[in-house]
Write a structure and sequence with these properties.
Number of strands of chain A: 1
Number of strands of chain B: 3
Distance between the termini of chain A: 50 Å
Strand content of chain A: under 5%
Shape of chain A: elongated
Largest interface: A-B, 43 and 45 residues
Number of domains of chain A: 1
Helix content of chain A: 55-70%
Strand order of the largest sheet of chain B: 1-2
Largest sheet of chain A: none
Radius of gyration of chain B: 34 Å
Strand content of chain B: under 5%
Number of helices of chain B: 25
Oligomer: heterodimer
Distance between the termini of chain B: 73 Å
Shape of chain B: elongated
């Protein structure tokens, strides 16, 4: 197994373990909004948020924001 | 008056730091902030100095719980910053840093707007030297832009203060709920220093250009002084919630694109200050405590991150991710200390950011703002992605570039160790910080649910990072930001305006020269004008050889055939001209005397 696969497996198992803990030991006293009640909500938020925070800047950078390092000297 | 004013201690130490020789300077650099910390802890809430000035009662020192906690962290940072910069031999740079720290303390202790404004301007005027001392063309130009923008912000603040002073009361008090010009002028003036987009570009433009030690001070003071003013003057201003949330996201979006390590960290100042601004806008006791706590913790971990980045740049001479890599073996201490700062800013359990960020996010949730809560968590994801994963991976673990880092001075590691120790101490024992917050605290960050939440966010972000790793490497580019407006179109417009004015000036100069050259013969020979006038009206003179003198006067022939002008001999007419002038002067004096009633008919 490659290092990269081992890394994916470790992270995946860690995430699954935390979700399992939330399912087994819920803490309703900390719920204010519906998403606080959903086990693993923060896993989804983390995955979606991180993808978005890579894709959005990269797209903006490629089409609008990134320029050569000598841009202001030209 | 009781006690010593902590600001005055640092300001008085500035000329000593500039002028004293080596060991004495070091004693001042470490001793003055220690004295300032002792003075801060000795000043009890309720202490005030009163001073009459032009009919106003000034309060150059007014202590309450909010000013006390900000003053403590500013004085502590002055110590850590000076320790980090202890090897620097430029006395002027030390003096600028001392004045800057003193000005920050002056603002937080100011009980009236006039005192606050004076220290506010001193902040900009002293800190710009921390940029200029780098002495590169980029630093000089960036420092000038920094100064201009801060003076514009200061002018807006002053306009608001003048309007306030017109009402007779200059005490610093909350403006929340008012909507007049005073509110907006002061808010925009403070927003410039808080780096609220679109007024933020001075920060990300200038901080990476500053000296390696100067950027540690810069990261601590200007924006946090502004946060202090927002907490005191605009608590509960709803607009600030969404400005803060936008800031938090804006910074992380730009940080993903950055290649310069100090600029990447600068964008994260914008992002983290967003949490504080949002807390000020929420305005509940929990939120105000959260913003204060986050400012306190942020100053520590951000100073640590800038110190670590500065150490890497000092050791390698490189500041771009595309030029760095494989430093983990060569600089293990810098890596560990950097990671403590990175885990703190990301809000990892056991570190101070976990405590302070949790308070702000929890305050937004409890204030009925679920959207703000989710967006602030998103910003935290971005922080972890850039500061905890991207920067250390590509600088310390990425492709080795064959770098042979130089040894960094031991004082740098001591300063980083001190900041790291405080980050961990507050993370492990939040009560240490709670005791200094303005309102009583009953908040437990270490619940199972909360720790699990943060762990899930970090693991998920780590998974995405591993998946998209090749896309996240630095690129040899710059990223356009709002400063593009005044560095490109406005600069071109001003350049064209200056060029047009210059052409106008050159045209006017050429025209005036031509007119003067044409008029010169008439001054040389008073007969020329009447002679030509006579010729124009009566026609050319008749008679042979009459044009010789005229020809001589014009420096050549007489192609126009205008004929002769008598030569002018000034000695011949001196008496007559003198008498004429004397007569004219006598006539004017007589007329004036009659007009003024000194003589009568």
């Amino acid at each position: 197994m490659t290092t990269r696969r081992r890394l994916y497996l470790t992270l995946g198992l860690g995430l699954a373990g935390t979700v399992a803990w939330q399912l087994l030991f819920p803490h309703p006293e900390h719920v204010i909004y519906w998403f606080h009640r959903v086990p693993g909500f923060d896993v989804l938020l983390g995955l979606a948020g991180a993808f978005l925070l890579v894709w959005l800047p990269k797209t903006l950078g490629e089409y609008f924001l990134q320029r050569g390092e000598d841009y202001y000297e030209r | 008056m009781t006690g010593l004013h902590p600001a005055l201690i640092l300001i008085a130490a500035a000329p000593l730091a500039a002028g004293l020789p080596g060991p004495w300077r070091k004693a001042v650099l470490l001793g003055a902030p220690v004295l300032a910390v002792a003075s801060v802890t000795a000043l009890e809430p309720g202490t005030a100095w009163r001073l009459g000035f032009l009919g106003y009662e000034l309060l150059p020192l007014q202590v309450d719980a909010l000013s006390r906690v900000f003053a403590l962290i500013f004085a502590l940072t002055a110590f850590l910053g000076n320790l980090y910069a202890l090897h620097v031999r430029r006395g002027g740079e030390h003096a600028a840093a001392m004045l800057y720290a003193g000005a920050a303390l002056g603002v937080v202790y100011a009980g009236d707007w006039l005192t606050l404004f004076v220290f506010w301007e001193l902040l900009a005027a002293s800190s710009v030297f921390l940029i200029w001392y780098r002495s590169t063309p980029g630093a000089l130009a960036s420092g000038l832009r920094y100064l201009v923008i801060h003076f514009i912000g200061g002018s807006l603040l002053l306009a608001g203060v003048i309007l306030l002073a017109g009402g007779g009361d200059v005490r610093v008090a909350s403006l929340t709920g008012t909507t007049g010009p005073v509110f907006w002028l002061i808010l925009i003036g403070v927003a410039v220093n808080a780096a609220i987009p679109p007024l933020h570009a001075w920060l990300t433009d200038s901080y990476p250009e500053a000296t390696l030690t100067g950027s540690v001070f810069l990261s601590a003071f200007t924006t946090k002084v502004a946060v202090y003013v927002l907490l005191r003057v605009f608590p509960g201003t709803g607009l600030l919630v969404w400005l803060g949330v936008a800031m938090a996201l804006y910074g992380v979006v730009y940080a993903v694109l950055e290649n310069d390590i100090r600029r990447l960290l600068s964008y994260h100042i914008v992002s983290q200050v967003g949490f504080m601004v949002a807390g000020a806008g929420i305005g509940t006791e929990l939120a105000l405590n959260g913003s204060t706590a986050h400012a306190f913790c942020h100053i520590l971990y951000k100073a640590l991150l800038f110190m670590a980045a500065g150490t890497v740049i000092h050791a390698t001479g490189r500041h771009k991710l595309t030029d760095l890599g494989g430093l983990a073996r060569a600089m293990p201490a810098a890596l560990v200390l950097y990671l403590i700062g990175a885990l703190s800013i990301s809000g990892a359990p056991l570190f101070n950011g976990f405590v302070s960020k949790s308070i702000v996010v929890s305050a937004s949730s409890k204030a009925g703002l679920p959207a703000a809560e989710l967006l602030l968590i998103m910003a935290s994801i971005g922080t972890f992605l850039s500061v905890n994963l991207k920067l250390p991976y590509f600088a310390f673990f990425g492709e080795a570039r064959g770098l042979d880092p130089a040894r960094a001075p031991v004082n740098k590691y001591l300063a980083m160790g001190g900041a790291a120790l405080l980050c961990v101490a507050i993370g492990l024992f939040p009560g240490l910080l709670y005791a200094w917050l303005p309102f009583a605290m009953n908040f437990e960050p270490y619940t199972v649910e909360h720790v699990l939440q943060v762990v899930q966010l970090m693991l998920a972000t780590g998974l995405v990072f591993a998946l998209v790793l090749p896309k996240l490497g630095g690129q040899p580019t710059i990223t356009l930001d709002v400063d593009w407006l005044y560095r490109r179109p406005l600069a071109i417009l001003l350049g064209r305006l200056v060029e047009s004015l210059r052409r106008l000036e050159l045209g006017a100069e050429a025209g005036a020269g031509k007119a003067l050259r044409a008029a010169l013969p008439y001054f040389r020979n008073p007969f020329l004008a009447p002679t030509r006038l006579t010729r124009v009206t009566l026609g050319p003179p008749r008679g042979a050889g009459a044009s010789a003198a005229f020809d001589e006067e014009r420096g050549g022939g007489d192609p126009a055939g205008e004929g002769a002008v008598p030569a002018y001999d000034e000695n011949r007419y001196r008496l007559r001209a003198g008498l004429s002038i004397l007569f004219i002067l006598a006539f004017l004096a007589l007329a004036a005397a009659l007009a003024l009633g000194l003589l009568r008919w």
